[in-house]
Amino acid sequence: MKTKYIISILLLVMGMSTIGQTVYTPWGTPVDVTEPNEGDIDGRLYWENLRRGQWPNAEYHTTWPVYPLYPYLSSTFKFNCHGYAWHMFWFGEDDELDEPVKMTLAEAENYFDDPSFMECAQSEADIWWINGGSHSAVATDNPAFLKSKWADGPLATHRIAESPYPPNMSYTTFYKKCSYKITNTYDTDITLNFCAIHLHNSSVLNYVDLEIEYEKGVLIDGTFSTGTGATLYFYPD
Question: How many distinct structural domains can be found in the chain?
């Protein structure tokens, strides 16, 4: 009996262990995160059945590993809402589950502090930072729906309010991904689709003439004094 008890404890510890790894924001800031082990099938089934019962109208997305007896299983311990929205989603639909991570609120903040993502209006958002960061969700093509991972539960596409984490709009912030970061560039007539440009002037040039045309057709034309090592930010309307 004593031997059985010790083995059970060891298996429990092994099942909950994590693997440390470093991922990077789109603009190259390193973020130390964890990749937890999968956990047992009973734990996955618990969250699966609970959430499907609570939110029957959501679309649940199969994750891995796939069990022959439960091919529909969406719940997993291997990633959470922040890891999915800020890191995994941007690999594209075919590859987004290849690098699962769990990310804390503080780790996710790196993505808009550096800033790979910039605050924007709700209508322009790629990611919703819900209730001060208690949850992250990805915007979809349908403005009435979000896609998000529910803690250790399923990955689901759902109506905005139909989830365990309904947003209080007074405490929810919206972010869109910045497309370009430019360094040591002094060209004119630059046409880009971007959220912001960082221009680092590390040469002897003190003035940079820029003509920047946004994808929406908004034109900014001017001469900017930068100074060595300065950073210029340009924000679209």
Answer: 2
